[in-house]
Design goal:
Keywords: Signal, Transport. Pfam families: NMT1_2. Part of a binding-protein-dependent transport system for aliphatic sulfonates. Putative binding protein. There is one protein chain. The chain is of the alpha/beta class. It has 2 domains: 183 residues, Periplasmic binding protein-like II (D-Maltodextrin-Binding Protein, domain 2); 91 residues, D-Maltodextrin-Binding Protein, domain 2, CATH 3.40.190. A 5-stranded mixed β-sheet has the order 4-2-5-12-6, sandwiched between helices. It has a 5-stranded mixed β-sheet with strand order 9-8-10-7-11, with helices on both faces. Helix 7 links the parallel strand 8 and strand 9. Helix 3 packs across helix 11, helix 11 crosses helix 12 and helix 12 packs across helix 13. The longest helix is centred in the last third of the chain and has 20 residues.
Length: 351
């Protein structure tokens, strides 16, 4: 598709975003909301920083659109690469094509089991309402137990994969009692609309887009099944040589999240204008996204993630048992605090 053919669609999205903002429009712009009394100190970074993201990565999208990181990291070329799902993103990270990225809970487990060299470095809080198992509105399926023998579409190794594992467990069904159909989100939606699958396990924004377009029924969401936590992962070289970059990233991501919470309409307009998604879709998925500050993995988060890994191993869905804690970046509190200091005040050994 050429640039001219994309223009009407982009114009439509921009109009929707402006309508959403109403008469205030951009009178108090997102850039203005992001302004701070003090400009944070520039951080010495690597020559390049390649960041992987998905359309649902609200905090990262805000930073990308505002050009915040390009200003924060002195002498660093920041590149942004979009992926349809976490497994593809982590393949690129493991292959050396990325330095940093955000995924759901399952992709890192599959990557670790496959021997990929990467590290958990940060996390956002769980978002259980942001993923669901959908069925057509006229489907005879009414309970999770009704999935027995049915064809269920999902992205293999995604957060929706774990949601489906937990849903079957709750229903007393074994994994081999359904027919998993492994499809990327776009292909899964097409199969779902054709009714060539009976159900679809999916996450936002694909979930929200399908809700608004074809009104499916929600058989279950993540409440009581899967926390649907989000994790930031990084290449080992970035962690070992530039930990101060990670601290600065987390600080900026958390500021972006505060903006998403306090200036919701502006955040919706920004994400819609960037992603090409309808503003109504963006509004739907951001509305069920809780406050998502970014920080190091807490001990309980590691425990919860180990449960994800153990579940996949018990079902034979990963080739070996893994210990999540083995690939978690855990600087001490003092070390982490020191990484926020200006370079001139930080001992050179900290770099």
């Amino acid at each position: 598709m050429n640039a001219n053919s994309k223009k009407p669609r982009l114009d439509r999205v921009r109009r929707q975003a402006l309508q959403l903002l109403g008469t205030t429009a951009f009178s108090w712009s997102l850039a203005g909301q992001y302004a701070r009394a003090e400009t944070p100190a520039a951080v010495a970074g690597p020559e390049q920083l390649r960041i992987g993201y998905q359309k649902s990565a609200v905090n990262l999208v805000i930073l990308k659109q505002q050009g915040v990181l390009e200003k924060r990291f002195a002498g660093t070329k920041v590149s942004w690469l979009e992926f349809p799902a976490g497994p593809q993103l982590l393949e690129a990270l493991a292959a050396g094509s990325l330095d940093f990225g955000l995924t759901g809970d399952s992709p890192p487990v599959f990557a670790q089991a496959a021997g990929r060299d990467l590290l958990y470095v940060g996390a956002e809080p769980p978002k259980p309402e942001s993923s669901a198992i959908l069925v057509p509105s006229d489907s005879p399926l009414r309970t999770l137990a009704d999935l027995k023998g049915r064809r269920v579409a999902l992205q293999k190794g995604s957060s929706a994969h774990y949601l489906l594992v937990r849903a079957l467990d709750k229903a007393g069904l074994a994994w081999n009692e359904i027919q998993p159909v492994y499809l990327a989100p776009a292909d899964a939606r097409a199969a779902f609309e054709r009714k060539s699958v009976d159900a679809w396990a999916i996450w936002d924004p694909f979930y929200a887009a399908t809700e608004l377009a074809i009104r499916p029924r929600v058989l279950a969401n993540g409440e009581g099944l899967s926390g649907n936590a989000s994790f930031y992962l990084a290449a080992r070289g970035l962690v070992e040589r530039h930990p101060q970059v990670l601290r600065a990233l987390f600080d900026e991501l958390t500021r972006a999240d505060r903006l998403a919470q306090s200036a919701r309409q502006e955040a919706v307009a920004l994400v819609a204008g960037f992603s090409g998604l309808d503003a109504a879709v963006v509004s739907r998925f951001i509305a069920r996204r809780p406050s998502s500050p970014v920080g190091l993995l807490a001990a309980q988060t590691v425990v919860d993630q180990q449960r994800v890994a153990d579940a996949f191993f018990r079902l034979g869905l990963i080739p070996r048992q893994v210990q999540v804690a083995d690939i978690v970046w855990r600087p001490s509190a003092a070390e982490y605090a020191r990484l926020a200091e200006p370079a001139a005040a930080r001992p050179s050994s900290a770099l």
